[in-house]
């Protein structure tokens, strides 16, 4: 493979891994809250989290572009306080992939938490454990496989993200060019052979990620 | 020890659980048919549910009082709870299950050493086994040991023999008798088996649709029958 293909592959995998790590703490916390607690506005948050799954990715990208652009509410704040430019940079790619994969992580982790028998948590409390110890010693270990499966699914979704990413980050070679953006770009230029090389790389990575996720889910179910 | 439930109320799906009782026997049976509110009553005492009125006191300490809004969390009550299936932690070994409450408890009363409990319940051969490899009776012994090792002031047993076949029940009863006679931990024993009430308990409370229907010594409440060996007197 050429150095350019390696660079694109490395960047795509790094972005997917980075965005998955970024959403993991919040995703786990939200999944637990949805699975184990009733609170005002829960159904609104549930719907908001699921939105990226049902609205067109480019629409999600447009919302992010408006929010995180230089004149956007969040983007302006980040640029003025931290000097971060989010849109049309690698940060935009991470943001778009994180938002698009967040629902998959939360939904899978929520099911994993719901599958933990609450009686085990109750008994742990009667054995002297406070909420944090119950969570770390009982709930989290028993839900771990499901959460891991959700993280792998989120990673796989990030690898293939296109619509939101092109809106937020554009196609900038060496800066925002992921596998899917590069495939689209090469096909537009008629460089089909190179596009097929990237397609092969995408297939290998995606197949591996989904295969690992399925193994986690199957072991979790048994 | 005395457990006092003063006008405790808890609305359930089909009726309101209403209890006003003092329990101070070594083993008090809560006897009644399925759906009578027995498990909900144990959950109130363990702190897993909050009463909607009334108060609960254990040896002079208020565990819950609706009027003053005071409520002691389950982890601070020192009330052990063994559910019907034992609820052992499947991802931990037998040893780690036993040590779960033992390692965090503040007081370590004499007679409740790790080795002694393991010895009394004959858990030694199981100690390094995974939970999934245990039989029903072994699981219940480990669950009992785990609850005892947390040094509870009161032990709640929710139909501990209900899921076992007759032969296993026969084998587990001596362990329960030994716990009753050897340790000074009072127990509340939920069951729908008259035989278990007569064999194990000093006091019995008959619960039906959330209300205490009768109260008294098992020998006064139950009479000899055939199968089961005892039945509730009319």
List keywords for this structure.
heterodimer, A: 222 residues, mainly alpha, MetI-like fold, 10 helices, 81% helix, B: 234 residues, alpha/beta, Rossmann fold, 6-stranded mixed β-sheet, 5-stranded antiparallel β-sheet, 7 helices, globular
How confident is the prediction overall: mean pLDDT of chain A?
92
Number of domains of chain A: 1
Please tell me the total number of domains of chain B.
Answer: 1
- The value of Rg of chain A in angstroms is 19 Å
Structure description:
By secondary structure, chain A is an all-alpha fold. Chain A has one domain: MetI-like fold, CATH 1.10.3720.10. Chain A is 81% helix and 0% strand. The longest helix of chain A has 34 residues, at 3-36. The model of chain A has no long low-confidence stretch (mean pLDDT 92). Chain B is α/β, with parallel strands linked by helices. Chain B has one domain: Rossmann fold. Chain B has helices at residues 38-46, 94-102, 114-120, 136-149, 166-182, 194-200, 218-221; strands spanning 3-11, 16-23, 27-31, 53-58, 61-65, 70-71, 79-82, 154-158, 187-191, 203-208, 211-216, 222-224, 230-232. In chain B, the strands form 3 sheets. In chain B, strands 7-8-9-3-10-11 form a 6-stranded mixed β-sheet, sandwiched between helices. In chain B, helix 4 (136-149) packs parallel to helix 5. The longest helix of chain B is centred in the C-terminal third of the chain and has 17 residues, at 166-182. Chain B is globular, with a radius of gyration of 17 Å. The mean pLDDT of chain B is 91. At the A-B interface, helix 6 and helix 7 of A face strand 7 of B.
